[in-house]
């Protein structure tokens, strides 16, 4: 069965490495914080000015002055720190943050990503996404494999305005985990119960399929 | 040097039609809400507003949008505001969308006497169109220029009569950089204290960047996304 949003978040959480500073985007990426594997210590950066972001506050303890980049009320972990937006993006641009996880509307086989605008229809803005993808060395895209019209979101070239070029290294969807290298999607793992055929059919871009494609292990 | 003005009316004196304003805040967090309410009352129009977001339909900068007081918005993210989207798609409102880090740095640069800088953010996208591109360490960067404003309006938690400011939690966000970049910077604070009360080691914005300071009458501090867990 294809993964749900929580399943995607759980699989991404397995990519976390000890000692990393991690920026999580809005949507599925935010859920990753709930599934950090035991024994792994990471700190979450929120680009509005937090390092060491904690869980949502208990009901009644929310503070209007303490939110994450998705404008949700949050808390601070022990040892957390607050800073201004320029300092926050110095951390990001200066490559002090080891991993960025974000959502996307389209990803292409050369690692381009589009997630901020549908011309004439939806213009929300790029927020911090362009700064994040331009500088992060390690970018994982978390998204559904296809859009609401069942069209592939893993393309030869993006059709929507780009957020960044040649930057995405890994994509984790409801169907598969793929790596991007040599201008191609490489199938690394299948979601539990999902066939290679199914993934192939849902991928418009060039897909390299190894002989053995293991199933993801999700708790 | 005493920077204190009596109220929001005195603080905003001199703001006229067609001026450029910077307004601090991230979402509805750390916005100068008393000053925004006053701008609505003053009914100044044709404003260019530099602010990370545009508020929601009935709060923050959304209030100025409703009355069509804003001609142009310079922001990084403008979702969550239907009136904004309507005015932008119909062409009534000019919008310049800028990557968030570039927006912060352009404000900082404006206050720091740096006319322009190179950044990798936005290379290969619409943002880079018409901008100079230069390679450093084998990687292309785009030239972004500093931003300036006739008035910068920021919101702080505590401030003293000298204009020194301390922000609370993530209500800091863009406020310190915008405070640096205003020709005239107005700080509205929750608590105004005499000089000497703030520990100099923990001041975030030195008073040199602030020309006028006042204690806001009331702060609603609306929460945009109340997310909680149960005990």
Describe what this molecule looks like in 3D:
- The complex is a heterodimer of chains A (219) and B (231).
- Helix content of chain A is 16%, strand content 26%.
- Chain A has 219 residues and is of the alpha/beta class.
- In chain A, the strands form 3 sheets. Chain A has a 10-stranded mixed beta sheet with strand order 4-3-2-1-5-10-12-13-14-15, sandwiched between helices. Chain A has a 3-stranded mixed beta sheet with strand order 7-6-11, with no helix packed on it. Chain A has a two-stranded antiparallel ribbon with strand order 8-9.
- Chain B has 231 residues and is of the alpha/beta class.
- Chain B is 20% helix and 27% strand.
- In chain B, α5 packs parallel to α6.
- The relative contact order of chain B is 0.19.
- The model of chain B has no long low-confidence stretch (mean pLDDT 97).
- Classes of the chains: A alpha/beta (219), B alpha/beta (231).
- The interface between A and B is large, with 55 and 59 residues.
Distance between the termini of chain A: 14 Å
Q: Indicate the mean pLDDT of chain B.
A: 97
Counting copies of identical and different chains, the oligomeric state is heterodimer
Indicate the overall shape of chain A. globular
Main beta-sheet annotation of chain A: 10 strands, mixed
Low-confidence stretches of chain B: none
Fraction of residues in H or I helices of chain B: 10-25%
Strand order of the largest sheet of chain A: 4-3-2-1-5-10-12-13-14-15
Structural class of the secondary elements of chain B? alpha/beta
Major beta sheet summary of chain B:
8 strands, mixed
User: What's the pLDDT, averaged over the residues of chain A?
Assistant: 96
Quick one: which chains have the greatest interface? A-B, 55 and 59 residues
